[in-house]
């Protein structure tokens, strides 16, 4: 399942550099997560790094982009070009 950033975001700029997939970018008003790039850090880390650093806890799972760990790992492999 990809993550999303809610409107509680305070634009503190700490999440964007933590994303290993470059899935976080500044939107019109708040940061946004590209669900096509978000792997919840599967393949990189044990837990989503953006959620670890967010001071206002505004990065929940995206209910419209449900993915299993296997699907997230496949997305990681597709994004990085790694096959194992």
TrEMBL record:
<dbReference type="InterPro" id="IPR017896">
    <property type="entry name" value="4Fe4S_Fe-S-bd"/>
</dbReference>
<keyword id="KW-0004">4Fe-4S</keyword>
<dbReference type="GO" id="GO:0051539">
    <property type="term" value="F:4 iron, 4 sulfur cluster binding"/>
</dbReference>
<feature type="domain" description="4Fe-4S ferredoxin-type">
    <location>
        <begin position="31"/>
        <end position="64"/>
    </location>
</feature>
<dbReference type="InterPro" id="IPR017900">
    <property type="entry name" value="4Fe4S_Fe_S_CS"/>
</dbReference>
<keyword id="KW-0249">Electron transport</keyword>
<feature type="domain" description="4Fe-4S ferredoxin-type">
    <location>
        <begin position="1"/>
        <end position="29"/>
    </location>
</feature>
<keyword id="KW-0479">Metal-binding</keyword>
<dbReference type="GO" id="GO:0005737">
    <property type="term" value="C:cytoplasm"/>
</dbReference>
<dbReference type="InterPro" id="IPR047927">
    <property type="entry name" value="YfhL-like"/>
</dbReference>
<keyword id="KW-0677">Repeat</keyword>
<protein>
    <submittedName>
        <fullName>Ferredoxin</fullName>
    </submittedName>
</protein>
<dbReference type="Pfam" id="PF00037">
    <property type="entry name" value="Fer4"/>
</dbReference>
<keyword id="KW-0408">Iron</keyword>
<keyword id="KW-0813">Transport</keyword>
<dbReference type="InterPro" id="IPR050157">
    <property type="entry name" value="PSI_iron-sulfur_center"/>
</dbReference>
<dbReference type="GO" id="GO:0046872">
    <property type="term" value="F:metal ion binding"/>
</dbReference>
<keyword id="KW-0411">Iron-sulfur</keyword>
